[in-house]
Amino acid sequence: MKRSVAILSSAVLVVALMTGCGKAEDNAQPNQNAASQTDGNKQGNEAADANDPLTQFPKLTLPYTGDAKAAFVEYQGGTVTGQEFEEFLRVINFMNPQQGTMIEAADNEALKAFAREYTATKILASRSDDAMKKEAKDLADKTFEKIKGQYMGFLGKDEAKFNKLMEGQGVTKEMVTNQMALINESITVLKKNISDDTLKQKYDQMDKASRTIASVRHILISTEQRKPEEALKIANDLEARLKKGEDFAKLAKEFTDDPGSKETGGLYENADVSQWVPEFKDAALTQKVGEVGPPVKTSFGYHIIKVENRKEKTFDEMKEELRANALEAGYDAFGKNELDKLIVKYNLPQSKNEAAKK
């Protein structure tokens, strides 16, 4: 499981809270064939509920029952109590509702992973000094205001509704900022050993493709539902039309089989070339900028490619990306080399979802 504290870290915490949450009015579907006044009233209430944005963010249903005072995890130097663990889970849900869905569906193994992760956060945070703690708390306060602003935008700038939402989710500002500060402290502890010199060494060791971004237009003629020779003929015809001056974006919208770039006229803008399949990547790296190249065959079919611009990112442009990668690697190393040796015992309650697996 990817580390949720990385998801929650200050580096990415202008969270897309509303992802997957459509407009409430779009979700109301009253039945026009109600058989009785009772049914009509019921449907009216359901429609009213659907139009209340607060219903988009229900309280997290914990997948277990446990004693708030019990030690859910025992580790060298401390414990994680049931109350701490619950607060951690509720704050995750508040900050990222998609994570909340994962929590509600958690089985025993997933609960243990969440508990292990929170224990790691506590242990790392305990190694922070006073300056780190202050920085972490200040950042937590600022981040809370960003999250509040996102919710407020969704709730029509109604602070009373935001307060009601927090109450409904079982969280307080203090609870949220305390958990965020703990996460920030753990991240700061990991970051202190990541110097710019170390990052520069990583940058210098990267190959050119890993440092290059390009804006590329392409038209894919897929071989999934046509013979390769048929696809190649179409691609050659399109190449000829483009070289005669026809508009690339217009032809891409009409002919491409790539849904990811169809509406942008075949354009992938400022993309990391290393993410593409080898043949496409090679064309993006070597094809002359501004010219339409001959069809390039990949496992998807034939591509007509035009590189609109290409540049190699500088160290300064990549530094924070490299730092984030080093941070993740540092956390992984802590987990492999220290964490499981420091955890003495798990006393987690059984997940209610375990029975559903059998």
Automatic annotation (TrEMBL):
Residues 211-309 form the PpiC domain. It comes from the Bacteria. Residues 28-44 have a biased composition (Polar residues). Residues 1-24 form the signal peptide. Residues 26-56 are annotated as: Disordered. The keyword Ion transport does not apply. PROSITE patterns: PPIC_PPIASE_2, PROKAR_LIPOPROTEIN. Keywords: Isomerase, Rotamase, Signal. One of its GO terms (molecular function) is peptidyl-prolyl cis-trans isomerase activity. This is Foldase. It comes from Brevibacillus agri.
